Amino acid sequence: MLGLFKLLLYLSVGEIFVRVMHLPLPGSVLGLLLMLTDFRLNGRVDREVERLFDSVSSHFSILFVPAGAGIIVQGEVLADGISVIVISVLAGTLATLFVTAFSFRLFLLRKCTAPPEEGNGAETNERGSQS
Amino acid sequence: MTPSPDGLASTFQTISAQAPFVGIAMTFGVYLVSTKLYQLMGSPAFAHPLLIAIAAIALCLNIFSVPYELYFRSSKPLHLLLGPIVVLLAVPLWRQLTAIRELGPKLLLVLLIGALAGIATSAGIALLLAAPAELVSTVAPKSVTTAVAINLSESLGGVPAITAVVVILTGLVGATLGWPMLHALGIRDARANGFAIGVASHVIGTARAFQIDQKAGAFSSLGMVLNALMTTALIGLARLAFDCV
After folding, report:
1. What is the spatial distance between Cα B138 and Cα B75, in angstroms, rounded to a whole number?
2. Among A63-77, A89-103, A111-125, B3-17, which stretch is predicted with the lowest mean pLDDT?
3. CB contact under 8 A, A53 and B203
4. CB neighbours of B52 closer than 8 A, spacing ≥ 6?
5. What is the tens place of the pLDDT at every residue in B75-96?
6. What pLDDT sits at residue B5?
7. In sequence order, what DSSP letters do the residues of B183-213 get, joined into one string?
């Protein structure tokens, strides 16, 4: 129960904060940061929140259907913006991929190219992501 | 056997007012069928269950001339769950903290560059082509994971429905073309490519990265969660600084 309460509490605090401060941001992202701060202060992840995430994470997609179906009433915006949408989805995504991978290699891989180092780093990371 | 479309619309209206679970049940049903169909077809990218589900709902509403607003009102509880889902993303971020600490501040630099590239190639292109403010806000969060992107589009004054579809298409482009393109360009490190796929094409790209390589998948989910935060922060800062739109 406490985990669920925290979830709703942080979300509410986030939403109230962005409205009071007139921030053009989703309150839910602030809620995410509050939850992360909670984990850090406690030194560990909240088990209930973790269980909740693991049980719903593979079914997130269904929640996007109600908003996505709204495309049928947006014909006008869609028609006006189709060139912008196609360019940014196709060229934009590929450009973003290249720029990100290139700068990752430039800044993070050049200095530690010794193969044993890489192996260690990856193992530690995998352990970290499973715990 | 079938009543007239007008009759159906008003029937749906009455039913959904009195039995508010109808829209939710309909969404679940359509989504389940889409997922099955996707698996039966051998999971091709163009038949992503989300795309099929959205198309199927749109088709149903069209055939039975049920106004979208009516369906949305009836399925709103599902939409509202996007908020708590975003907060739950703290869990994968927490799991990646070790990796973030190991890579250090340079990771933030790479993230910043990636997030800027994502915004420049969406909102930037829209601004260059003199698109209306609404459209700029709609495409700006294209590389951000859907739950955050929809929330972001809503709070920026964009059109969340188009954002949702743009985000899904972006994910599909990154998932299908990302890995082969980066390889062709000579970037063959699983960590660099995984991170880039996560930053550019969020959870859909991440799912694909996990199929290719576990390490790439881990770095992809790292890129995805971090970019959701970075893009939100950058767009927020830009809005506060220029007070545009």
Report:
1. 22
2. A111-125
3. no
4. B34, B37, B38
5. 999 999 989 998 998 998 898 8
6. 56
7. HHTT---HHHHHHHHHHHHHHHHHHHHHHH-
- Return the residue matching tokens 């992202």: A29
Nearest to B187 among A65, A67, A105 (CB): A105
Question: What is the interface pTM, i.e. ipTM, of the complex?
Answer: 0.83
pLDDT for the residue B240: 81
First to last CA, chain B: 51
Q: Using CB atoms and an 8 Å cut-off, which of residues 184-223 of chain B contact chain A?
A: 185, 187, 189, 191-193, 195-197, 199-201, 203, 214-215, 218, 221, 223
Higher-confidence residue: A118 or B157? B157
Window 35-54 of B: residues touching A by CB (8 A cutoff) are 49-50, 53-54
Q: What is the pLDDT of residues B29-38, one digit of tens each?
A: 999 999 999 9
Q: Do B121 and A95 touch (CB under 8 A)?
A: yes
> Which residue type is seen at A102?
F
Q: Are B53 and B164 in contact (CB under 8 A)?
A: no
Residues 6 or more apart whose CB falls under 8 angstroms from that of A17 comprise A23, A27, A30
To which H or E segment does residue B80 belong? helix B68-80
- pLDDT average, residue stretch B226-243: 88
| Relative orientation angle of helices B190-212 and B160-184, to the nearest 10 degrees | 110
Say if CB B223 and CB B112 are below 8 A apart. no
Residue appearing with tokens 């790209």:
B205
pTM over 0.90: no
Cβ-contact B181, B188 below 8 angstroms: no
Tokens 């590929």 label which residue?
A94
Torsion sign, CA atoms A19, A22, A24, A27 = negative
Measured CA to CA, the distance from residue B217 to residue B206 in angstroms comes to 6
Q: Please give the C-alpha separations between residue B98 and each of B19, B101, B153, B197, in angstroms, as whole numbers.
A: 48, 5, 31, 20
Of B71, B85, B187, the CB nearest to A69: B71
